[in-house]
Amino acid sequence: MNAAFRQKTTRVILFIFGDSLYDAGNNNYFPIPLRINHWPYGETYFHFPTGRASNGRLIPDFIAEYAKLPLIPPYLQPRISYNYGVNFASLGAGALQETNKGSVISLNIQLSYFKNVEKNLRHKLGGEEAKRFLSKAVYIFSIGTNDYNSKTTPIPFHSQEEYVGMVIGNLTNVIKGIYNKGGRKFGILNLVAKGCFPVARALRSAGSKGSCMDEFSTARKLHNTVLSKVLVELERRLKGFKYSETDFYTAFSERINNPSKYGFKEAKTACCGSGPYRGLGGCGGNNKYELCDTPDDYLFFDPAHPSEKANEQFAKLMWSGNSPFIWPYNLKTLFELQTQ
């Protein structure tokens, strides 16, 4: 192991797991149909499509900036370094293996990629040093929302409670898998009310004046309740386990209901898309689409994903916010915490 790498083990490190909210381009390197590698994605900041589901940067990109890190590379990008962390997230992924099966890098596969990184670090650093390196890292997750989209979840289930238990159970197993390899500090988003996204308003628009689809939100609310309880229990049972939970549901809902308060002119219609609320047909590629002139005016860039401006606001909240949106630690404090 070279001295330069050993020196870098004293730095902060960020590992990223999840779905399209966090995917920095892994799907571009995987033979699957769910990709966002076409214009106008990336137009605002990168000026070319990177695989990110936005006009610019995502939440983890801003978190990395606040932590004084470079952009964290996708795991599947060739010839990457692990010195500052890795991004394992995949557009369309869920906590369950069956969600969008065959079209995404599932959370379990993301865990297997992390284990490959851990094995590589042990080889370079030795077992104890690798574990110390991983204990200093922060592991952030955005996962679960795709598990509650009826078209992507073929598993039959007896009750909503049972299904939520399966989703949370698999997420918990992945967190424990990381903990067993040395991970101690975790940042978790709860789930948003997707029934108010442009894609949902468009599906409901006929005769409803584009109202929210409340049926999209019921399971997510239950998920959030169970998630909070499970995180408290993990902190009680696992020595050294620390976490930051973000009430993404409320933070997003506030911007949908009061866009002008947060500097947005439009929170119902997407910047890019087609049909009612620009909520249908996708954005760019082979799709016919409309594109707004000023993405920063919009809460949503495409029918289902926030604009860069919204991502920056959410990242700032996660980094330095307080209760009732963030608890028991914000990410800035979590990065600074000493681990056991």
From TrEMBL:
Keywords: Signal. The keyword rRNA-binding does not apply. Pfam families: Lipase_GDSL. SUPFAM superfamilies: SGNH hydrolase. PROSITE patterns: LIPASE_GDSL_SER. Belongs to the 'GDSL' lipolytic enzyme family. Gene3D superfamilies: SGNH hydrolase. This is GDSL esterase/lipase 1-like. It comes from the Eukaryota.
